[in-house]
Amino acid sequence: MQNRVFVTMERNTYVVSTDNQLPDKLTVTQSNNQPPLPADLILVSPVYDLTGYVGDKAVSSVQFDPALRLVVAYDQSLVPTNVASLFLAYYDKTQGWVSLGPPEGFIAGEGQVAAVVSHFTPFAVFATLKPLPARFLVHDLRLSSSQVKPGENITITVQVTNQGGLSGEYAVPA
User: Fold this and answer.
1) Structure confidence by residue, pLDDT tens digits, 18-33
2) What pLDDT was estimated at residue 98?
């Protein structure tokens, strides 16, 4: 059931475009014009476009009252192992990608997320990541001298780099 979208509309839902036209067809398709993606999020579904039509003409900004319930199934193999959260987001030209919370009482099934939307716009499933634990790399070992006599001191320096996402401590073994 990966990469599928389910839309639920209550009976007597008011549907109108900003052109004050009543759409006679509503579609959900994978987007051909993907909006810019945020650098701090991982895309785990296609970007979908929700579009309303009057005849063969696409109409702008379709609104719903009450809002629609959207459930999106996604490919779980695209979800990183260190995921902190999964959520549905919509794209706004001025705000960018805006996170949506799940509908009240919604219990997510495996490989799906849901949200309530009141207008048509591009949307997709994103993941946020947990920071990786501290991971230290010891490199560039240097000695103050290549030879020492018994009882002489030598200075040893190394570079220690934290390659993880969290802070931590590292003790260089003696």
Assistant:
1) 777 788 888 888 888 8
2) 92
Q: Hey, what are 24's tokens?
A: 């006679």
**CA proximity to 69, closest of 27, 150, 10:** 10
pLDDT tens column, 36-91? 888 888 888 999 988 888 888 888 678 888 888 888 888 888 888 888 888 999 99
Residue type, 82: N
- Could you please report the per-residue DSSP string of 87-136? EEEEEETTTEEEEEPPPTT--PPTTEEEEEEEE---EEEEEEEPPPPP-E
Total residue count of the chain as it appears in this document: 174
- Indicate the DSSP class of residue 45: S
> What's the predicted TM-score (pTM) here?
0.70
* Contact between 86 and 75 (Cβ < 8 Å): no
C-alpha distances out from residue 100 to 116, 124, 125, Å: 8, 10, 10
Neighbours of 153 (CB within 10 A): 7
> From CA 142, how far away is CA 159, in angstroms rounded?
9
Q: Which helix (H) or strand (E) holds 159?
A: strand 156-162
